[in-house]
Design brief:
Blueprint (H helix, E strand, L loop, with lengths): L1 H5 L1 H16 L3 H13 L1 H23 L2 H7 L1 H27 L14 H16 L2 H14 L6 H25 L3 H9 L1 H23 L1
Length: 214
Amino acid sequence: MSDLMLNLPQVIAAYMLYLVAVISPGPAIIAIISTSLNHGRRSGMTIALGIFAGSFTWAMAAALGLSALLSRYGEALQVLKVLGGCYLLYLAYKAARGALRRDAPQADVHAADAPASVLRTFLTGYAIHLTNPKAIFAWVAIISLGLPPSASTSAVAIIVGGCLTTGFIVFMTYALLFSTARAARLYRQARRSIEAVMALLFGAAGIKMLASGL
């Protein structure tokens, strides 16, 4: 508790920075919304868990100082950018193909997932967040903003634990909100427009990531 009180202004600043970053529309949030609308609550929560796992990975990396290693060896970041950009373009292609399809089968919305697809959905979310360099930069900024150089282990736990808890709540809220029956009805009414917007957002994010990595 003493660490929290001593670093309270920095802790609040770090929490606010993370909250803004995590609720802002980006590849992770777009993926959660798209999956929840198309395949229902189970898949939405599964991909949200995968994205949270990716966030947890970057949080541990930043806390343990891996960010300094990546900053020194920029080639690693370039590879991540290229991989992430290619994957986002693939997601854009899938969304565009859905937008061009006039009629979507009823099973496309809230379809039941086979057990094998659960792992694939989780890994998709993990890959989206793990291959997004913005994620680690956000965590580096949070760690740098919230912790002084002489911070104790408990102070690191307060920052990382609080931000991860916030991220988990936000990711799951998006999944639950966009997997409701009302959201599904609205999606069926505007499916092609939504898929087109998703394609544009995924495509723009993928091109931007590739351009920064090449």
